[in-house]
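Example A, followed by Example B.
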Amino acid sequence: MDAEECVSFPILGEPAPDFTAETTHGPMTLSGLKGKWVVLFSHPADFTPVCTTEFLAFTAIHDELKALNVQLVGLSVDSISSHLGWVHDIKEKMGVQIPFPIIADLNMKVAKKYGMIHPGQSSTAAVRCVFFIDDKGIMRAMIYYPLQNGRFMPEIIRLVKALQTTDKYKVSTPANWQPGDKVVVPPPKTAAEMEKRPTEGYEYKDWYLCYKKI
């Protein structure tokens, strides 16, 4: 196994591993998507029940993601022919047109770059990963699910909005945050800032925990 084929994992806060791949929409290079956020997700296999429910669900959130400047991209280690046949089957049997590209990764090069192959689950299929890559190509968040359990689409939307809110307002989002909820103000960095904090107009819980509306 050469260095390029070795299993690796992306690192939060660092550039997402670049790749060029064949997709159902033609050739794609990740670096060519800079300027957009990317939600890259893997699924174990075409023509399988849980994956089919997920593709229907990802299609349902596609337009909302697009409105957030997000390009949705799927991947499995199946071939282009398999992907196209499955997409056609979903449209014919369920009346749903899959609007996003699906990467064909038969050689597992992308899957291995992104740590999608977990031998404890399967050595021949990708687990259910979701990677959140920002418009500068930086890896911002990752979620991994096992083969047997489908993903919760509202969390994918919520996390994109949380990340974009953090960038826009330079704040953090608390547990269970939803768009429109109060956000967390960054904690003070000096003793003087700490003493000043109760007078700054925030919802003050303690010097290190303050909320505000945006």
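Example B, a separate protein, is given below in the same form.
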Amino acid sequence: MMLKDLAKQAGIAPAQAHAYLVSFRKQGLIEQEAQAGQYRLGPFALELGITRMRSFDPLRMATEGAINLATETGMTVAVVTWGSFGPTVIQVHERGDQINMNTRAGTVCSVSGTASGRVFAAFMPEGLIRESVKNERKEDNMSQRIGKSQFLSKTTIAEIRRNGFATIEDRPVPSLGAISAPVFDHVGQMQLAITLIGPEKVLDTSVGSPFVEALLSATNALSYQLGFDARHTKPGGTAIGAINRD
């Protein structure tokens, strides 16, 4: 950027901005192109970024975020990652009086039959999702997977991507509702999902509800901590076509 544009973005006078830039340049935080005169981040800024990437622990951050979300909402919060058999719960943080709760660490979720699975379906690569759904259908009735394979349309996938979260009407446990939202890393790849679980009569899963807003606030904060910038980075994954039972 040019000096005048940087000053405008910072809300300060060009002369004051120049004084800052001189100091930043000495530290290696920025550098200036010789011909165009534009400023850009310097080598020390890269070192800071690399140090940050080496030092943070995504799982620790997710744990802290999930605990805070459970306390704020009074609902159970699950942290879900993509495992060998599909969406897999790795943590469960319970709050309030939960009944008929059968989600625990190690639980594998149906891709199309759970809120957690559907959010992965919307933001993970199409080929991976199709293969996972195919494997689900091969399983017998003794499978320990939560949720049954359901029809998942392209329209539903598009809606999840547009809203930023997934829910499901035909719930695995009729008395419990769920809302799940993705967490992205610095390149826009989905790393995990955070899922709110609670009594269907209490947990409002509609767009704009306090529970949805609390969940999105938590996942957006986690994504930001992992380096995701929604202004410049598009979430990875491809919206898939209809996934049928047949």
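On Example B: The longest strand covers residues 190-199.
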